[in-house]
Structures are given as structure tokens and as C-alpha cells.
Amino acid sequence: MMFKTEFAPLARPAILPDIDNRSGLPAFASVGDVLRAYEGDDAIFVLYPKKIAAAAKVFLNGFPGKVLYAVKANPHPAVLKTLWTSGVRTFDGASTRESELVRAVAPSAKLFLMHPVKSRATIRHAYNEGVRDFAFDSSDELAKILEETGYADDLSLHLRLALPKGEAAMPLSGKFGATHEEAVELLRDARHHAALLGVTFHVGSQCLNSAEYGRALAWVRAILHKAGVSIDSVDCGGGFPVAYPGMAPKPMDTYFDAIREALQANGFDGLQVLGEPGRALCAQGGSTLARVELRKGEDLYLNDGSYGSLFDAAQCAWKFPVKLHRAAPRPAAPSEMFRFFGPTCDSLDVMNGPFDLPGDVGEGDWIEVCHLGAYGQALSSRFNGFYSETTVAVMA
Ligand SMILES: Cc1ncc(COP(=O)(O)O)c(C=O)c1O
User: Fold this and answer.
1) Which pLDDT score is estimated for 164?
2) Is 2-49+284-394 in CATH node 2.40.37.10?
3) Which of 292, 281, 308 is nearest to 355 (CA)?
4) Which CATH number is associated with domain 50-282?
């Protein structure tokens, strides 16, 4: 809190603009307008509410089931509000804090708690707040859910399955999920306690190959066949991809069609179908404006980095698209390749890129790192006192 009081006055736009109804944020017509109004010293998070609303529309119109927003991708109240006003009514939270963020923005939203490992207090709190949908991937977690909800007769229990290793850019196998054999036993056991029994899986984040969803649904069918248990719901998780440089997903309908066909082929068309997109709903609707504090040759030292919103640019070496914004525009010099360093003292705070920018970029210029609306702002820490409390909407 000490940091907040100390730094907050620096992070206020000088001119108070209109408020965007959809997101509740100060609204600007362009990034240039944001920079002209800004008096702070930190990076700036930009949301593009129209892009988030457009992504929501694609899912609400095309996904063959109920759309749950995976709050972890970006829990900022403005993102939650934008999705709510765009028609998303159901949210997948992992923790009490995520659930409270959703409740504060949209008290009547339906919440699912789909993290397979939760504290007892989290389960109790969620149940008392009206949550009935819980994920589990072990008999101990199932027991926790049953005990903490007093063996309620209105539970929707979703068994998280481990999938065979897939092709997603960020595999999520290995940490959570019941194996084939475990799943057979767990389904038989949970059936006795569940008002609604479902299975859930995650093909891995940024999954470019639409066939992975079909493979996962065939895996579900094999497990159900072995268990001899009927289920009521199947949750296809997240993983829906975004066009980052060097990664070219097919149109989103390709993924929806693959799911629709696999649901039919595996005899799941009568079930409740769920999906938990995170990245695909907000990645392209957010960016970070980072200022160049120093240039040393081809290295640019920025006021945001791997401990801020550029974690994936550092750890996964993703080359997010970049744009240069200058206080005083001048004709762009021919482009060159640059490496970024973040502001902290840690030598891991480096984004190798290379990032393509006009060759005369220098101190005081702002770099917009695009497609950071998911797992960017959400992952930012306060390490070394470098963080930003400024989020604005650009109405492009
Ligand atoms: C349980 C669960 N659901 C949904 C998501 C969202 O995935 P994505 O952002 O790839 O759509 C995640 C991401 O880690 C997850 O763990």
C-alpha cells in the first residue's frame, strides 16, 4: 500500500477524458491522445474495448456451447465489464479474489470454480456465494469439495482430465488432470455425489491445431466407455489461439467446427457443452505502452519488462508486434532490429525479440507492445517498484 500512495499521483492523466461506457475506463480516440494527456512516469496499459467486444461476439455467436471467460487471462475490472456488457454471462475463476472481482463488476454473473486444486476456505466461500460448479482431479480434492459443501445435493462436479501431450504453444499437461485409469474410478465415485457430472480438459494454451479438440473428445469417450458412467456436461477448456507474429491460427470457426463435429462423432451432442476461452477473448484487445529510458546500440531499456507485462516476450521469446509512438512525430527512419531490457535490476529481465522498429528510436519514445491483453497486465508484478496503475481505453 505504501507504494500505491507514493506512486499513484504520478500515474494520472492530466486531462480527464470521457468515460467509455463499455469498460468504465477513461476513453481516448488514439494512443497519441493518451500520450499527450499522460503525466505519469510508468508504463501505460491500453485496452481496446471494441476489439474485446468483437472477440466476445465471435465466441457467443460461434462456439457450440456456453462461453465461460477464464478470468486469469486478464482480471482487470474493465475487461470483466467489457465482456459482461458484450453478453458474456459466465466466468471461470480460480480463486476467491478472482470470484470477488467478477462479483464486484457483475453481481448476477454465474461463476464456476474450475481450478482443480483449491483451499478449503476457497471452496466454502464459493459455495456460500452460490457457486455450484467445481473442478477436481483427485479423490482427495473431491472429498474436500464434498466436506466443505456439507455433501450438498446440488453440486455440478467437473473431472479435469490429463490429456496426452499435444501441440499447443504452451502445453498445460503435466500439472493437473486425472490419468485415464484414475478418471475411470473418479467418475464412478463422483457420479454418486453429483447432481450434474461433467468432464473438463485443456488442450494447452495457444493451440493452433484444431484437431487437438477432436482428439481430446475422443479421449473423453474412451474413458467414459471404460467407466460405464454417463455424464451431463463436457467442458472443452481454453486454448483458442491468437495471431501473434510467427503464429497463424486458422479462423476461429475452424476450431468451433472441429469441436462441433467431434461432439457429434463421439455422441456428445445431447450434453451441456462449455468452453473457457481466456487468451482469445482479450489478447488482441490490450497493449502496453512502454517508454524508452535509454538506448545502448541495439538495446532499448524500457519502463516495462519481464516482471511487468512482457513475461511471455521474455520467457517464451514471443515477438509481440510493436509500434513506435513519438511525442513529436518525424519521418520514420529505416527499420532495425532491437532487443528490449526491462527496468528491474535482474538480468533475466530481457526480451530478445528481435523487435523491428525505426532505426532512430531513442530515449523518450514510446513503444506500443501489442496483443498483450491476455497474460500481460495479469502477470505484472511490483518487483523493484516498477509497475503501472494506469489503464486507459482507446476507442479504435
Ligand atoms: C482451467 C483453465 N481454463 C481456461 C484457461 C484459459 O486458457 P486460454 O487462455 O488458453 O484460453 C486456462 C489457462 O491456463 C485454464 O487453466
Assistant:
1) 87
2) yes
3) 292
4) 3.20.20.10
